[in-house]
């Protein structure tokens, strides 16, 4: 296994680039089963481990549990110390603190592990407050079911409130996962980047390739199928300058657009967690480091 650049998180070094698994089992957005199946994902995971990208982000809702189950099998087949990050979805019918622990235990069973590296609240959904779920996250860490606690899609004020509530229980907010890329620089303007810096929480950048648009292979005459199609048709026109500049920088540096887009985030101290559908994409993305 290669050694890769890292970021300090909760008392240990984690790789500066991770792997996302929303694609695993998802038919609607990612077309799972049409040109990307389980064998491809085995290849994806194997390539990530070989490249030293050991932080793998998943969620109970990805593929309705399929992503966690497959990841659990793959982690069980490797000797490599994979860091599993998964997420709790605060559905409106989940009203008690114990419901987070129940969901986490179900994730652990699917993942076939006793604890995860990182447990994150997926969205700050009502009716419960961010403080309520922060208390439940602290329970998960106290019970030894998760090493680190994180939040996702929280606003800057919600991040601070969650960190404060965790802090009262002696738990640090380790990570904040938000959409962040050359296409989506809102975290720089809405205070999320500043909040992460202030709290020394690692920013996990999701959709770091703009859901594939920044990889440079799509254009007006070549669009993906599924739910990305209409959005990409608009973005290839509206963001034509950005996509052209990305191609130019990539060419000048002997890199690919995906590598430039990911390196841009790494240089800002964020940890991108690109999704990938096969080994080739992972190998290319790993070349963003250095
Ligand atoms: N917390 C949240 O609410 C949330 C939301 C979204 C995502 N996430 C997490 O973040 C991860 C990453 O985000 P994402 O999957 O939405 O988008 P992304 O990482 O920006 O894009 C992933 C897609 O880009 C394409 N791609 C990746 N590498 C490529 C390469 N080297 N060359 C060409 N194409 C490449 C692939 O799709 P095609 O080949 O089909 O183009 C791949 O499925 C997810 O998997 C998930 O773990 C979290």
Sum this structure up briefly.
By secondary structure, the chain is of the alpha/beta class.
Q: Which small molecules are bound?
A: NADP nicotinamide-adenine-dinucleotide phosphate
**What coarse outline follows from CA principal-axis ratios?**
globular
Spatial order of strands in the largest sheet: 3-4-5-6-7-8-9-10
Going by CATH, the homologous superfamily would be NADP-dependent oxidoreductase domain
Helix content class: 40-55%
The assigned CATH architecture is Alpha-Beta Barrel
Question: What are the defining features of this structure?
Answer:
TIM Barrel, binds NADP nicotinamide-adenine-dinucleotide phosphate, alpha/beta
Describe the protein's architecture and organization.
The chain has helices at residues 38-50, 66-76, 97-111, 130-142, 156-168, 186-189, 192-199, 229-238, 240-253, 257-267, 279-286; strands spanning 6-9, 12-15, 19-20, 55-57, 83-88, 116-121, 146-152, 173-179, 202-206, 271-272. With 290 residues, it is an alpha/beta fold. The chain has a single domain, classed as TIM Barrel (Alpha-Beta Barrel). The two termini are 16 Å apart. It binds NADP nicotinamide-adenine-dinucleotide phosphate (NAP). NADP nicotinamide-adenine-dinucleotide phosphate binds at residues 20-23, 30, 57, 122, 152-153, 177, 206-212, 215, 217, 224, 258, 273-277, 281, 284-285. Residues 20-23, 30, 57, 122, 152-153, 177, 206-212, 215, 217, 224, 258, 273-277, 281, 284-285 line the site of NADP nicotinamide-adenine-dinucleotide phosphate.
């Amino acid at each position: 296994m290669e050694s890769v650049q890292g970021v300090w998180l909760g008392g240990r070094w984690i790789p500066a680039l991770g792997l996302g698994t929303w694609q695993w089992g998802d038919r609607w957005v990612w077309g799972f089963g049409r040109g990307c199946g389980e064998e491809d994902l085995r290849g994806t995971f194997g390539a990530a481990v070989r490249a030293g990208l050991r932080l793998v982000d998943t969620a109970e809702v990805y593929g309705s549990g399929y992503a966690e189950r497959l990841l659990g099998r793959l982690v069980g087949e490797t000797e490599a110390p994979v860091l599993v990050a998964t997420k709790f979805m605060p559905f409106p019918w989940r009203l008690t603190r114990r419901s987070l622990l129940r969901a986490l235990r179900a994730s652990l069973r699917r993942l076939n592990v006793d604890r995860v590296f990182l447990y994150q609240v997926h969205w700050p959904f009502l009716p419960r407050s961010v403080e309520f779920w922060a208390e439940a996250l602290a329970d998960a860490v106290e019970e030894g079911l998760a090493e680190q606690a994180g939040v996702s899609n929280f606003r800057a004020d919600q991040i601070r409130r969650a960190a404060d509530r965790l802090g009262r229980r002696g738990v640090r907010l380790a990570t904040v996962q938000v959409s962040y890329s050359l296409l989506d620089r809102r975290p720089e303007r809405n205070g999320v980047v500043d909040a992460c810096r202030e709290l020394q929480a690692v920013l996990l950048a999701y959709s770091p390739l703009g859901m594939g648009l920044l990889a440079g292979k799509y254009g007006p005459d070549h669009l993906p199928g599924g739910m990305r199609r209409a959005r990409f048709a608009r973005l290839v026109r509206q963001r034509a300058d950005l996509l052209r500049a990305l191609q130019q920088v990539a060419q000048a540096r002997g890199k690919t657009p995906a590598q430039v887009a990911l390196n841009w985030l790494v240089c800002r101290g964020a940890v991108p967690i690109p999704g990938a559908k096969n080994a080739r994409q992972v190998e290319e993305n790993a070349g963003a480091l250095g």
